[in-house]
Amino acid sequence: MQHKDSEPSMHHVQDEELICLADGELTPKQAAQVDAHLEACWECRARMEEIQCTITGFVRTHHAEFDGQLPPADGPRALLRARLAERGSPSQTRW
Amino acid sequence: MGTEMPPSSYENASFAVPSAVRRSAKASGIEREIMELFDEFRCPLLRYSVSMGLSIHDAEEVIQEVFLALFRHLHLGRSRSNLRGWLFRVTHNLALKERLANHTSLERTAGDASVAAEHADPSPGPEAQLSEAQRRYRLLAVVRALPDNDQHCLRLRAEGLRYREIATVLGMSLGAVSISLTRSLARLARADGR
Q1: Domain end point (choices B102, B123, B143)
Q2: CB contact under 8 A, A55 and B163
Q3: Is A30 helix (H, G, I), strand (E, B) or coil?
Q4: What is the mean pLDDT of chain B?
Q5: pTM here?
Q6: Of A6, A60, A10, which Cα lies nearest the Cα of B116?
Q7: Closest of B45, B144, B129, B132 to residue B87, by C-alpha
Q8: What is the pLDDT of residue B104?
Q9: Nearest to residue A80, comparing CAs of B34, B186, B138?
Q10: Binary contact (A76, B20; C-beta < 8 A)
């Protein structure tokens, strides 16, 4: 992306690269190149903020959709412990 | 005293422990480890299972099966690398199986309106709350209209999985995960008026 070591490219960054940067999925070299471009380009920085805002909105929606339905863990936890104890007893460990 | 063990017997004392007792001690160590993982991952795995269309009851049963399978996995001395990815992969496969058995799909209709309002931040005023609820409703509608795999990618990423883990859970390439997330976020952004 860089023309020279100190000069960031003026080609705008694709959304996929911005999302990968936000997700820490670029190589260090790629991330440095995109970061350098973002420092110089308001347009791409604005798009990056929009992407972050969309991610925040989705994560909140994802939790709001399900968290209210989740029952307390006590019952399932006790059940799992009992089932594990049953399987862990010497007579049950012949796999 | 004549009953004392000779030094060589001390050295071999561990071999005198009955194998059943050793098995039991090993099982109890694994059991502790599994309970810790259960405490950490029950909620994320439940959310993911329910997002795949299971009822809470069925999802809880799937999670139990997942952790019992993990017990067998660890007891057999199999790989401990990336147990989070392992848990989500087994959950995904068991939830799919359960969904097929129940003839259910990802489509859900109940509770959407209340879902959008639930967990709203109580601090903003009523107008801000309404606006936030409407936003969630819009985003939810977009998510539910996405193809199954795109929904799974988004949900798994929201639960903190890295692209490589998502690729393994869903049997996709890394590039396909990246493209899927980009496509889904673009749709969400459009619905969000961005």
Answers
A1: B102
A2: no
A3: helix
A4: 83
A5: 0.80
A6: A60
A7: B45
A8: 66
A9: B34
A10: no
